[in-house]
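During the practical work, I selected for study one protein's amino acid sequence and its backbone structure tokens, as given directly below:
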Amino acid sequence: MGLAGIDEVVFGPFRLGLRERTLAGPRGTISLKGRAFDLLTTLIERRAEVVSKDELLRRVWGGLWVEENNLHVQVSAIRRALEHGERYILTVPGRGYRFIGVLEEPPVAEPAQAPPIAEAAPTTNLPGPMTAMVGREAELASIAALLDRACLVTLTGPSGVGKTKLAAEVARGLRARYPAGCWWAGLGSVSDGALAVRAVAASLRTDEISEKPLIEGLVDVLGRGPVLLVLDGCERVAGATAALVRELLTRCPGLTVLGTSHGPLGVEGECVRRLAPLRAPMAAVVAPAFRAEPGRSFADPVWDGDLPRPGVRAAGVRPRLSSWSLPPA
């Protein structure tokens, strides 16, 4: 058996380093001169057979003419180095020498295992579409354009006007613009401003990072690059939400916030988009369309139970002076 590709041979208490040409025993490194080392290596390589003296002279001395006594001298040197070397080098009278030591099998290298592929962290928790959006195409395009140039856009209007559904539709349509994440946090059921940050952290599941304050966990997730955060139903905790938005926008340069509320949040740089109920002939357009395609929703107060009575104008909310707004669509 050849020794190609093997760096070390182990037999008994000895280690033969083929690459470094070293021999080590139980008391450390053993001095073994070049011819003796080549002779021992040849015998180990041809250990399955008796190697003739002529073959050893040819392999170790390269065909040079030397007296046979030189071979006996090198064999004796090996036996002294190995201590009781007759246990490893056997003389076969009239034929040659044979290595009779037992080699330890080299350890089989375990195949390299690829590191486990970590599951990609989710980058969104946006709600899925429930029904098709109809009649708000102009608003969708307008809000998408506002988010392209403003870091905070707030959709305002009375309950039932369709702010939540419109915000979700806008966010779903802009996923590609925010590769680091599109996140949704509902605040409509929160009435205590002190719980606003916790509600947002729970929606993004950053409250599970117990060793960090809630705000730090949010910054870790929202500060990773272009991120959109939708804060839905801010009206009951508008003050606390405004304070949270100010801090997040300051600490997360790539963050854009889309909010829904009855009125503006009053944050500097806020862009306010007021939504009004859809104006459509009920009998001629809405009812027949709904009967023909019962799965469609018009994001209109008629389906949310908020249709103004005839002759009564829907109540609006005036924006604060520190904010700016667009006229109703």
Observations:
- The domain at 8-99 is CATH 1.10.10.10 (Arc Repressor Mutant, subunit A).
- The chain has two domains: 8-99, 132-326.
- The CA atoms of residues 160 and 305 lie 7 Å apart.
- Residues 68-82 form the longest helix (15 residues).
